[in-house]
Amino acid sequence: xxxxxxxxxxxxxxxxxxxxxxxxxxxxxxxxxxxxxxxxxxxxxxxxxxxxxxxxxxxxxxxxxxxxxxxxxxxxxxxxxxxxxxxxxxxxxxxxxxxxxxxxxxxxxxxxxxxxxxxxxxxxxxxxxxxxxxxxxxxxxxxxxxxxxxxxxxxxxxxxxxxxxxxxxxxxxxxxxxxxxxxxxxxxxxxx
Length: 192
What we know:
- The chain is elongated, with a radius of gyration of 48 Å.
- It has helices at 17-27, 34-71, 76-92, 95-130, 133-154, 163-178; strands at residues 5-6, 9-10.
- A two-stranded antiparallel ribbon has the order 1-2.
- Strand 1 and strand 2 form a beta hairpin.
- By secondary structure, it is mainly α.
């Protein structure tokens, strides 16, 4: 169904019979005089030439544009970066982004405070645990075991010493044992 234009608006009514006849007769080349045909052919050639010229001008302008951009140091990557930066800036200025940013920032602050409180509570619990009688008893047992090992492996150290000194002397004694020092007979166990 062919529709026609009337006063700049599209009409929804189909063409009437006589309108279709007028279009069919206008499309028919046999209805044109030789003079009209020659004028239309000349106009056709002129339009084709103008289109070709416009394409050439457009192509020359595009080349000139590329040359100017190269002289200015602009390339595709820089343009993409600029476009991305502009787009990101546009996003950041929207109300939705600002509200979301505020909400997430506030949530982050609350989470940071919560983690800080948890860390403080854990530190306090470890401090309490270290001062507890159970931990003190465990610490004494470890100290007794280390002293006993030290006595059996490397002799008695009457000065006591720090934990680091005990570890160092135990490592030294182990190194001597491996290097050819006294060894336990097969089946003999180290007693603590």
